[in-house]
Amino acid sequence: MPLRLLKYGLSGSYPVTGDIPATPDLKPSYDVVIVGGGGHGLACAHYLSKHHGITNVAVLEKGYLAGGNTARNTTTIRSNYITKEGIAFYKEGVQLYEEMSEELDFNVMFSQRGQLTLAHSEATLRSFHLRAEMGKHAGTNIEVVDAQTVRELSPHLNMDEGGPLEIMGGLWHADGGTARHDAVAWGYAAQASRRGVEIHQRTEVEGFDVEGGKIARVRTNRGTVTAGQVMIAVGGMNYDMAMKAGVELPIRCFPLQAMVTQPLKPWLHTLVSSVSLHTYLVQSSRGEIVIGGGSDPYQLYSTRSTLDMKEHLAEGAVHLFPFLHGVRLLRQWAGITDMTPDYSPIMGASPLSNLWLDCGWGTWGFKATPVAGKYMAQTIANQKVAPILEPFTMERFATFDLLNEMGATAASH
Amino acid sequence: MSRLPAPWGNRINRDVPVTFSFEGRTNQGFAGDVIASALAAKGQWMLSRSFKYHRPRGLMSMAGAEADTLVQLPSDPNVQADRHPISQGLRVSAQNVNGSLARDRDAYMDKLGRFLPVGFYYRSFMGPTRNSWLKMWEPLIRKKAGLGVVDLKAPHADYEKANLFCDLLVVGGGLAGLTAAIEAAEAGADVILADMEPVLGGALTYGRDGVDRLDALLKQAAALPNLRVMTETVVNGWFEDNWLPLIRGNKLYKTRAREVLLATGSVEQPAVFRNNDLPGIMLGGAAQRLMRHYAVKPGHRTVVMAANIDGYRVALDLLEAGVELAALVDPRPGGSGGALASELAATGTKVIQGVVEEARGKTHVTAVKVGDDWLDCDLAVISVGYAPMWQLPCHAGAKLGYDEDSARFSLTLPDAALGIAGGLAGVFAADAVVADAQQAAQVALQRLNLSTREITPVADDEASLTNFEPVIASHPMGKDFVDRDEDIQVKDLQNAVKEGYRELELIKRFTTVGMGPSQGRHSALATARVVAKATDRSVDQIGVTTARPPFGPETLGVLSGHHHPAERRTALHREHIRLGADMRPVGAWRRPYFYGPKVDAKRLIEEEVHAVRNGVGILDVSTLGGLEVRGPDAGEFLNRIYTLAYKKQPVGRCRYCLMTNEMGTVIDDGVAYRLAEDLYYVTATTGAVARVYADMLFWNAQWRLDVDVLNVTSAFSGFNITGPKARDVVTALDGDIDFSREGFAYLDGHSGTVAGVPVRAMRIGFTGELSYELHCPSTYAKTLWDAVIKVGEPVGMRPYGLEASRILRLEKGHILIGQDTDALTSPDELGFEWAISKTKPFFVGKRSIEMRRNKGLSRKLVGLSFDAPQGDPNVPGESCLVLKDDVPVGHITSVLWSPTLSAHIALAYVHGDDADEGSVVTVKCRNGVRLNVPVRGHTFFDAENKRQEL
Predict the structure, then answer these.
(1) A314 and A165 part of one domain
(2) Do B199 and B234 have their domain in common?
(3) B residues 157-196 near A, CB within 8 Å?
(4) Are A312 and A348 in the same domain?
(5) In this complex, do A318 and B557 lie within 8 Å of one another by their Cβ atoms?
(6) pLDDT at B243 over 80
(7) For chain A, how long is the longest CA-to-CA vector?
(8) Integer Cα distance of A259 and B281 in angstroms
């Protein structure tokens, strides 16, 4: 038994660590105001305070901490993207996850069990080869595997030999994994607040006062504050939030749904994802099978889930693992995703000199939590976009320097 | 233990014994028994071990919710023992035990509890090294996780789906639901009444004095033909616009109801005290169900804790069943059971004012502590309050509030065609429930424009007697469970608050309270009360966590249904099989890959290529998308959708179509054949036609042009006759189309009758050879095919498959959308400047194409060839990278061995600066070898286009 638990057990009372301090009153002024108390905002606050010594920071959260897309995503962590810029960025993201529990002294349960993406067609296999070639060239752990290896990696899969969804091979990403999403946010919150960052829950930003090409004041339901620098990271609501500052983002919002079964004893080791079926499955550390897929096909700002998507995801899951037909579903939910035209995020500068963007994370933001936080903090501290983020700035849409990740995100997140 | 005499046991048939086994031991019950009742009748109360601490657990609600009653069937994990009927030979075992239920090797976890405080896993299992979690701790913990075991060899089962429609769907067949359904059906509404139990009646079937009332209602309901009763049916969620899944067995009824009335009642709430989870401690409703439904005597000597009038009713029931009543404990100062109190007093029962503070017992309760006294008992019955069954109304957007005075949750309904009645609406006394249900039905009838009547309201004289402020006796030693599913004690919630997790959603996530199978049904009220106290806020401010579908567990099979992936076949499928084709999936379609035995694939494919280059071949192109664009604005419409100009295209001519999106990315190509002034027949890529069609409708919804688009892909079949001898074949056909060189020029389109079949003929092709494409209605496809095959025979015409087609197109340098293009490919990158009209004021993507052109090309698609022999590992495969200064700048999109040229030929993206013929680019093979290759144009064969215009 780990020493720490022994200590807990033998001490008379519960030793309080105090992860999240109670929300204090707003001060009139902060060096940095971070709008959005999700994983990204909290990670940025952590790195601002840790790497750059900036601690006069307020994180403003409309609801409860990490209650938006941080709470709703299905926690896939991977770096098997297509563009060299994307691969370099997400690769560092995976590395930061490997160090995260140690860095935060909070077990985020990063479980690197590998991600297996299935190809049911030659076209998919071709796109896998491209991702593998790009990944290998950049030094990530990725390879295209044949049907026999797929069978060995996930022995219970329905290979559908001779059928219309025959598994012809797969993309094996041994570095892929999952982590406990809430723990990531809480760990960052605990570290940042210990260094003096203020976390304000139930604090909604109602507007920005823009003067002279910059944000002069941030208006909230609990009062108005001035800020040297402002970052917005409110996944799902970024378009509306930026509009409050008069900045229009090239973002459209689509619901993304997921669901979870009752807990089962472990049987599914890897993350399994099928491009053609728009379905992926992963077994959580609690034993639940988490099932997700692609975004809803229409724009919407509602987090209500639908029967149709549930049926569709169940079809995919039962096709891949037919013995699951008797397994019971416990809960379904939805989040709102910010989709950009090229399926890559927007990070960096905005038309306002002190407004920084960390948005457009679509369906894949969780895996980037640490790396986006680290470099957004560097960007804000230096007031200059970090080199690794330069390909991701909003200007790319005006100049057509797009980062096409469409093929690497659909139903894989 | 013998059963109680009739009329106890209204669900069992004592004439039909049923033998089943539990944990390997044979048991006998009766038809109508559920697993838990049959076991309880034999004195087996323990059903499972708890999730975290492996504590002994048994039934609590008999209503199918908590994890404690989940058992394992051979192919079915997590089955509710208190709802699943027994059947002959059924094999049941306990879940989450290491060893056996009686001797669980993990029972030590209960003692270890003090070392595992709430959220302990966030603060431990990290060392000694960075990999320890992954390599050591996680595998260890994963073994302890989960409940049931999934049967990896579970046999196939059949599932069905159906659609239902009704005026009014009433959910819950208790007193309120039955009354409302009858009220609405009598007014002429088409009503469905759904209830999850095998018989209607709800609490009337097990409560005191319910039976007479029920019989009358059932007779009334049976006489109404427009009232459809669906028992054993779970309404498992509410979705937008009254779209509800009704699940009965393996069948899912997707139901659209004009009005919904929810009468799902309330959930009895447990009390919190130390060891409140021992088998033998159950809710009042559970004791009543055991007796009235199954004739099971729940114990010999009982203590009843009653904080409402129902608790007194249960006490009287227990006395009638011959259970010794040690005491009735009423926590309410001055609380009373009304008239029932005197009835109880007459039996000589001791009534104690106080609370049960603790229970003891090893695997079953043996005594409970009230004040300073331990009262011996083998049954403790808890009846202290209710929470409304809020899940369905909350799916629909209802808000749950808490009223401090009545200590109850109450619902505020959203603006929807939805109502609530009875216990769910906080109405309890029977006569008041009837009036409330009738009134709720009247509201629905009014919205349905059916005749209505006035209902006289009846005051609810029991409302104040149902709930009581917290019966939460937290204990310094813990094991006072708020959530039995997840083994959450009072101190776990309090400690979470101390850590700063003050919002209910955070507490849920940190402690996992409410995340188990019962999804907070039995824990939400107590949780809210504990958290309110710990954070010094009101219960109303704390609330409950969001209720999300489904209402109860539902199998993936019932959601998935009878699912078979669709497979599409062309009208000529059987002809291909007859000719020995190797049929392969291409999207949903099956297409001939080549013709002949698999072992000769390579030779046969080459022969098919040579046949086309030197003679004539025929290819089934029926899978190609076909769209008819019709109307006065058809030309204008195509002008906006595609990049070339179509308004001046003469009737009887074909023109290339290139489609781009708003980013200027190439998304499809095809050919438009103008059949008439106002009618174009447009082809689209096999895989893209559905999206192209949707895009066309999407755009015209905005443009409002006078045009109609029809997807005729399946209505038309087509085949391409191609090769230097193609004309010999088509001219030999009977018909009124002039296929001569003079009569039918390249890119001409002619319609007429061929071999008695109406045909649309186009001189287009993908091979670079003289080609005729004949399209006809699919019902005629075989007739036309047979005629063509017959006249082709003398000139040696050969059917060819997809692989030969791919080689032929690559030799000619034609691109395949989706393979040679990606989500950012611009026409300029393909060298398609010729396909972009310079004069049109607008088409989708025009602005982007021009902006991207001004930026200069970052990459371009070119031809490459490799002289190495076939099979050489140093020939790069598809997707191999093109490097410039070791940085990827492009990749190979297509590469094949060309039998015509005896070389490997490829299309590849290279850097824009290296796109000129003769520039040398670096290609990285899969094995890492880098090759320097000269760039060439991407037409490898007949660059002068002489052959297709023959």
Answers:
(1) yes
(2) yes
(3) 157, 159
(4) no
(5) yes
(6) yes
(7) 68
(8) 33
Residue in B closest to A406 by C-alpha:
B823
Q: Is the whole model's pTM more than 0.90, yes or no?
A: yes
Q: Examine the domain organization and report whether B654 and B752 are in the same domain.
A: yes
Report the domain count for chain B. Answer: 6
Q: Which residues of chain A have pLDDT under 50?
A: 1, 411
Show the domain range for A278.
112-175+253-339
Residue-level pLDDT at A1: 47
Between the alpha carbon of residue A35 and those of residues A63, A220, A351, the distances in Å are 12, 10, 17
B881 neighbourhood in chain A, CB within 8 Å: 133-134, 137
Return d(Cα A311, Cα A303) in angstroms, integer: 17
SS (H, E, C) B440-483: HHHHHHHHCCCCCCCCCCCCCCCHHHCCCCCCECCCCCCCEEEE
What tens digit of pLDDT does each residue of B433-477 get?
A: 999 999 999 999 999 999 889 999 999 887 666 777 767 888 888
**One-character DSSP codes across A290-328:** EEEEEEPSS--------HHHHHHHHHHHHHHSGGGGGPE
Q: In what helix (H) or strand (E) does residue B357 lie, and over which residues does it extend?
A: strand B356-360
Look at residue B342 in the predicted model and tell me its pLDDT: 87
Q: Which has the closest alpha carbon to B761: B742, B736, B778, B786?
A: B736
Query: How far does Cα A169 stand from its chain's mean position?
Result: 27
User: Where does B160-246 have alpha helices with state H?
Assistant: 175-186, 211-222
Domain count, chain A: 2
Average pLDDT, chain B: 93
Residue-wise pLDDT tens digits, B865-916: 998 888 788 899 999 999 999 999 999 999 999 999 999 999 999 999 999 9
Q: What is the CATH number of the domain that holds A162?
A: 3.30.9.10
Contacts of A81 in chain B (CB under 8 A): none
Written as six digits, the tokens of B841 are 């004021």
**CA dihedral in degrees (A146, A147, A153, A155; nearest 10)?**
-170
CA B181 to chain centre: 31
Domain of A226: which CATH number?
3.50.50.60
Token pair belonging to B386? 């209710």
| Helix, strand, coil tally for chain B in percent (to 5) | 30, 30, 45
pLDDT per position as a tens digit, B671-701: 999 999 999 999 999 999 999 999 999 999 9
For residue B556, list chain A residues with Cβ-Cβ distance below 8 A: 261, 314, 317-318, 324-329
CB contact (8 A) between residue A64 and residue B563: no
Per the CB < 8 Å rule, is B550 touching A332? yes
Nearest alpha carbon to residue B909 among B931, B930, B885, B893: B893
**Residue where one domain finishes, among candidates A287, A306, A339:** A339
Query: Counting beta carbons within 10 angstroms of the beta carbon of residue A343, is it exposed (0 to 12), middle (13 to 18) or buried (19 or more)?
Result: buried
Give the pLDDT confidence of B497-532 residue by residue, as tens digits.
999 999 999 999 999 999 888 889 999 999 999 999
C-beta atoms of B509 and A182 within 8 A:
yes
Cis preceding linkage at B128, omega within 30: yes
A209 in contact with chain B, both atoms CB, cutoff 8 A:
no
Residue located via tokens 């997790």: B501
- For residue A352, report the phi and psi dihedrals to the nearest 5 degrees: -95, 140
Higher pLDDT residue, A162 or B372?
B372
CATH of the domain at B101: 3.10.20.440
Q: E strands within B13-159?
A: 13-22, 25-31, 46-49, 56-58, 70-73, 76-80, 91-94
Residues of the domain holding B520: 470-556
B386-388 vs B266-268, strand pairing mode: antiparallel
Do B663 and B798 sit in the same domain of this protein? yes
A324, A339, A354 — which closes off a domain? A339
Q: Provide, as residue numbers in chain B, all residues whose Cβ is less than 8 Å from the Cβ of A109.
A: 121, 133, 138
| Residue B305 is assigned to a structural domain of this protein | yes
